[in-house]
Design goal:
Structural class: alpha+beta
Number of helices: 21
Largest sheet: 10 strands, mixed
């Protein structure tokens, strides 16, 4: 595509984004009937609209913050295009601790405002926004010294009080003090020679990648155009003002321009790089690496997760869909931002710290998978003097979990820092900050009252599980697992089974996931590559010792026709997946 020196919206080119073996005319009727459905046709429609129209907001980044920005802006009536260089949630938002929480450890740092805000968002997710995806989960803090009970107890009591004080009594049960016997009854796998008692409290458990996907699909339902595998290569300016972005469709290699009244940079650990494209550099992102290990479900006997002191922070062993999830590290990182490695020292740190509390120590033989994510912590590069733009007052913290919103240059809003649980507030603040660039006031954000895709009728669908099990020939236990992934969309996931019964028979090596789930990932959830399906729409990449590699050929053969892949493309997808950095040397 030729460059447009005047920054005018480019005219659309017929067939510009029709390419590859799956190329066909955009089915606009299908897109309009279900705007939350993400598939190759909806992507082509979004690409055509992105290149052919001027939008109010262009969002860079398809993690939870970027998806949240798209939802917030679209729900206020703004026209929105979101561009993501890879798959939705392919960065930090699929590699978090998978817990919606207030941050109990931040109370010790006296960061009360962060904890209060995160608790409010945790309870909103559990009660209103995504109750099918975010579930209250018990945690036990094992006490090992006499002084810990009053000290930790005061902190946990304050945690509950802060949540209750936010209105409607909080979204989770209150904490309880436990004797040694009570603690061992809850968690028999703890070492009785070490544990003297415990405190049980609650936070929220979730699958982060699927939650981010739900936020993104909800944004699409309100009119946002979502384009994954579209890498931003430059920022367009007219004088001192940002007017849009240059991007490339990495599926076809086609370059295009997206014109926007404001650009919102929600690129996480890449945020400073994006801002530098616009000729500004008033902050730095200092990535901190967090490593988690997936542990076999029978490796630790407990009805509750564990949060305990570690060498320099806390260690958390939590239940996660039939497995245990052990984390986390918190170390400075320099290296490939897309593929941070899990190193031997990371694994040894986690095992050493958790084994202090366990009667039967964990070793590498009980590990199923591992992953590393990067927290985008803010470090100011400089502080401008008087008259130096909005960044002066906006940069208020360094290397913290608080977030910052700043505008520099004009027309480019950057939101950076924060934590997963507070994504909605970060998104709201970023859109609020864009009002001036958009030329006036905006309606208040309605996102605190907008249930995500799958949430509205999920309880009614849950009441029908026995009938659905009989109708589709799927075990009720499998449907219960799926209910907490798809919510009220579960019947739509199951529907093709009536005509294709094989879709109800799990593929060997696929960890119990149904073929119908892999199919739905391609037809409704925006998966374009095999890794999207195996690493994020399902979690085989971290739940199986081989990362799902043995099941990859059959999954590729199943979704290939839906995505227009011939046999050669299917083979390339399998080979590429098996070479994924997340599958190679995962345990250091």
């Amino acid at each position: 595509m030729s460059q447009n020196p005047r920054n005018d919206p480019p005219t659309s080119t017929p067939g510009l984004f029709d390419h590859g073996p799956s190329s066909h005319a955009v089915d606009l009727d299908a897109v309009s009937r279900d705007p939350g459905r993400l598939d190759p046709a909806s992507r082509r429609a979004a690409l055509a609209a992105a290149a052919g129209e001027r939008h109010d907001v262009v969002v860079i980044g398809g993690g939870v913050t970027g998806a949240g920005v798209a939802l917030d802006a679209a729900s206020r009536g703004l026209s929105v295009v979101l561009l993501e260089a890879g798959d939705l949630a392919s960065g930090t938002s699929s590699r978090s601790g998978k817990t919606a929480h207030g941050g109990l450890r931040y109370l010790e740092q006296l960061n009360f405002s962060l904890v209060a805000g995160a608790l409010r968002e945790r309870d909103l997710m559990i009660r209103t926004l995504a109750p099918h995806l975010v579930k209250p989960e018990p945690f036990l803090f094992p006490l090992t010294r006499r002084w810990e009970r009053p000290y930790i107890g005061a902190g946990v009591a304050l945690y509950d009080l802060m949540a209750a004080g936010l209105g409607r009594g909080g979204g989770v049960p209150h904490h309880r003090h436990l004797t040694r016997r009570g603690a061992l009854r809850e968690a028999p796998g703890l070492n009785p020679a070490v544990v003297t008692g415990g405190l049980r409290y609650y936070d929220g458990r979730m699958d982060d990648a699927r939650h981010t996907l739900a936020v993104a699909r909800t944004a699409a339902r309100y009119g946002a155009r979502l384009v994954s595998y579209a890498r931003v290569t430059g920022i367009r300016r007219d004088g001192d003002r940002v007017t849009g972005v240059e991007a490339v469709d990495t599926e076809s290699g086609t370059k295009f321009h997206v014109a926007g009244r404001v650009v919102i940079n929600a690129a996480g650990v890449w945020a400073a790089q994006v801002q530098s494209m616009a000729g500004a550099a008033n902050f730095q992102v200092t990535p901190a690496k967090g490593v988690h290990l997936v542990v076999a479900g029978d490796a630790f006997e407990s009805s509750t997760g564990i949060l305990a002191r570690a060498d320099d922070s806390v260690i958390i062993l939590r239940k996660w869909f039939g497995h245990w999830l052990l984390g986390t590290t918190d170390t400075p990182y320099q290296g490939d931002l897309a593929n941070p490695p899990v190193e031997t020292a990371d694994v040894e740190y986690l095992l050493r710290n958790v084994n202090r509390y366990l009667a039967r120590p964990l070793d590498r033989s009980r590990l199923l998978g591992a992953y590393a994510g990067l927290r985008p912590l803010l470090a100011p590069a400089r502080v401008r003097g008087e008259g130096g733009a909005a960044a002066t007052s906006a940069v208020t913290s360094a290397l913290s979990r608080d977030h910052t919103v700043l505008e520099e240059p004009a027309g480019l809003i950057t939101v950076v820092g924060g934590k997963y649980t507070t994504y909605r507030v970060m998104a709201r603040d970023a859109v609020d900050a864009s009002a001036r660039s958009l030329g006036g006031s905006l309606p208040p954000s309605p996102t605190a009252r907008l249930p995500l895709v799958g949430a509205p009728g999920w309880q009614a669908v849950g009441n029908r599980l026995p009938r659905l099990a009989a109708e589709y020939g799927v075990a009720e236990s499998a449907l219960d697992r799926m209910l907490h992934r798809y919510g009220d969309e579960l019947p739509a996931v199951l529907a093709p089974i009536l005509n294709h019964p094989d879709l109800a028979r799990p593929i060997p090596g696929a960890g119990g996931y149904l073929p119908a789930e892999f199919r739905y990932a391609a037809t409704h959830e925006g998966a374009l590559r095999l890794a999207d399906v195996l690493a994020r729409r399902t979690r085989l990449a971290i739940e199986r010792p081989d990362g799902g590699a043995s099941a990859a050929p059959e999954v590729a053969a199943l979704i290939g026709p839906l995505l227009g892949w011939d046999e050669a493309r299917q083979a390339r997808e399998v080979a590429s997946y098996r070479e994924e950095p997340t599958l190679a040397g995962r345990f250091g």
